[in-house]
Specification:
Strand order of the largest sheet: 3-1-6-11-8-9
Order of helices and strands: HEEEEEEEEEEHEE
Number of domains: 1
Number of strands: 12
CATH class: Mainly Beta
Low-confidence stretches: 3-25
Strand content: 35-45%
CATH architecture: Sandwich
Structural class: mainly beta
Distance between the termini: 58 Å
Radius of gyration: 18 Å
CATH superfamily: Galactose-binding lectin
Helix content: 10-25%
CATH topology: Jelly Rolls
Largest sheet: 6 strands, antiparallel
Mean pLDDT: 90
Length: about 200
């Protein structure tokens, strides 16, 4: 019985100190200007009817910031996060396992990983960001190529998903339905955005 309790205690301690894919890393120090997990550029692109229509989505929320946008109508909408906090920057995510997103959404949408060499257009690798029915959740999105696909309506990418990871310029949230979005966290495994 003592031996069984000792084994159980060892397993419990191991599980507490060993992070898994679902255990988001602790947030780092924020930038001196508004940011969420050091990401300062959360932008409404002007594509699709959104509120706000353009500009930065960051708003003060209690002790930090949130990025809030509402998609209106049944048309494609676009909200962008620049990973290096400026358009010309890019991040090498080839060794990253993925990212943790803390968000709420009233309907399903997608997130595209857009590389610098293929920034424009809708024909990008994407993965589903499921509706939370308005509840705030944290979900892990892995960078395994089998978890990313394309939509026939937007086109098939002419490059591999693996080739996009070393030159990632941004994560782009796209959706074709009315949706109320609230982003509170975006932590990328192995990547620390530079503050500007």
């Amino acid at each position: 019985m003592r031996r069984m309790l000792a084994v159980f205690a060892s397993l419990l301690v191991f599980s507490l100190i060993t992070p898994g894919a679902d255990a988001a890393p602790k947030p780092g120090r924020e930038c001196s200007t508004p940011s969420i997990d050091r990401l300062q550029q959360w932008l409404a692109s002007g594509e699709g009817t959104t509120v706000p229509a353009t500009g930065n989505l960051l708003v003060r929320e209690r002790h930090g910031y949130a990025a809030k946008v509402t998609f209106l109508n049944n048309e494609w909408h676009v909200a962008v996060v620049w990973l290096g906090n400026q358009f010309e920057a890019q991040a090498d995510l080839s060794r990253s396992a993925g990212f943790w997103l803390t968000y709420s959404a009233t309907d399903d949408l997608y997130v595209q990983l857009r590389p610098a060499s293929h920034w424009s257009g809708g024909d990008k690798w994407l993965t589903l960001v499921p509706s939370t029915h308005g509840k705030l959740v944290t979900k892990f999105f892995g960078f395994s190529p089998r978890k990313w696909t394309s939509l026939p309506e937007l086109g098939t990418p002419s490059y591999s998903f693996a080739s996009a990871l070393p030159e990632a310029r941004g994560l782009v949230f796209v959706g074709k339905t009315a949706n109320r979005l609230d982003f509170r966290g975006l932590r990328i495994d192995g990547y620390r955005p530079p503050c500007l």
